[in-house]
Design goal:
By secondary structure, the chain is of the alpha/beta class. Helices cover 36% and strands 17% of the residues.
Length: 373
């Protein structure tokens, strides 16, 4: 089977990595005023160099900065969109794990003027990754535009005097994201991933009940999100690979939603204008592979079979058997392998060690080599 020379690769990864102890310490020092922003950035630079070296050592062809400069996978980006300000949170978030629940009220957003992108968000950060990537393909991860809307809905964050017409909000949000994508393309980004919990969450009936309870169309919201993302990536260079990652929640080894991809599958795979789909398939919460029957030719599915939530290392033979099962629904040549999510969607990270992380990344590379050559 021919090797893939463009992203996503046979052995790939979602993006975020566990922060080393020295980076945690430096962030604490910065928060306490003991070091300057420049001193913190120098520590981040060194940690990112080490993270890139790790990814290259295990044999990955794409490298990220591990999201080491962020507190969370999404809000550090969203708060930099022009017209979006941080606001006190009012909604309780509940994440589940085998021991119980984690609940907290995160900060929210408020739209204070028409949306825009006034600079390349993460542009300087990505430039540093580009400068140290060597022969590897530097990959940038950003939240999908649906993340500006999903948790609260429009009227909770957008005053009617700013966007009396809801369609204008969707149009401006898509245009702002498109400006960001075009800026990144001009900077040389050729591997961009849009991380999206919304298109995974809506597979869970309880999440659709939540959307309907706030007065929105729960049966069609995924179509709105697909259209929004398509507007965001329209006109990108032909050689710029765009992928999306669908996640049901990833915070300190905990999750929010459950359910297979059945509800969104046909529209997702056939209408979303991306080159590849990173999909969670690490346990029964993700459902079976049957929805993959809707994947059309030319699209890649990156099977997230290796969990990033638990330290136990999967069996290579078990992974190969599951790849064979998935290949009953979509050709093997359209499949790749990765972790089910990042290792640290927030700075706290999941309940694994750096050695666990390295072992799992190495396993992904080894199994991909055995399966696809």
């Amino acid at each position: 089977m021919a090797p893939r020379t463009t992203p996503p690769f046979r052995a790939d990864h979602v993006g975020s990595l566990l922060r080393p102890a020295e980076l945690h310490a430096a962030r604490a020092d910065r928060a306490a005023g003991r070091i300057t922003a420049e001193e913190l950035r120098a520590v981040e630079d060194e940690a990112i160099r080490d993270a890139v070296a790790l990814q290259q050592l295990v044999g990955l062809r794409s490298v990220t900065d591990g999201e080491f400069r962020r507190a969370t996978w999404h809000m550090d980006f969203i708060y930099q969109i022009g017209g979006i300000d941080r606001a006190p949170g009012t909604l309780l978030s509940t994440f589940h794990n085998e021991e119980g629940d984690i609940t907290f009220t995160p900060d929210a957003i408020q739209v204070t003027r028409p949306l825009s992108v006034d600079k390349t968000i993460f542009g300087e950060d990505f430039a540093f990754l580009q400068s140290i990537a060597g022969d590897s393909v530097p990959k940038l991860t950003i939240p999908a535009p649906s993340m500006v809307h999903y948790r609260s809905g429009i009227r909770a964050v957008v005053a009617e005097d700013i966007y009396p017409d809801v369609e204008s909000f969707w149009s401006d949000l898509g245009a702002a994201y498109n400006a960001e994508v075009q800026r990144l393309a001009a900077q040389g980004c050729r591997y961009l991933q849009l991380d999206d919990t919304s298109l995974a969450y809506v597979n869970d009936p309880s999440q659709r009940e939540y959307i309907a309870a706030r007065g929105e169309d729960a049966e069609r919201i995924h179509l709105q999100y697909i259209s929004l993302t398509n507007a965001a990536v329209a006109g990108r260079p032909a050689d710029m690979a765009i992928t999306t990652h669908l996640c049901r929640g990833n915070f300190q080894s905990s999750w929010v939603a459950s359910g297979g991809y059945d509800f969104v599958a046909e529209a997702l795979f056939n209408e979303l204008d991306v080159d590849g789909f990173f999909l969670e398939f690490d346990d029964e919460r993700s459902g079976g592979f049957e929805p993959l029957r809707f994947v059309p030719p030319g699209k890649q599915v990156v099977l997230g079979l290796v969990t990033t939530k638990r330290p136990e290392l999967e069996s290579a033979d078990d992974l190969k058997r599951r790849i064979d099962e998935a290949a009953k629904y979509v050709p093997l040549d359209q499949l790749c392998l990765s972790g089910q999510c990042g290792f640290a969607s927030t700075a706290e990270g999941n309940a694994l060690t750096l050695d666990d992380e390295k072992a799992k990344l190495s396993l992904i590379v080894d199994v991909a080599q055995d399966v696809w050559g």
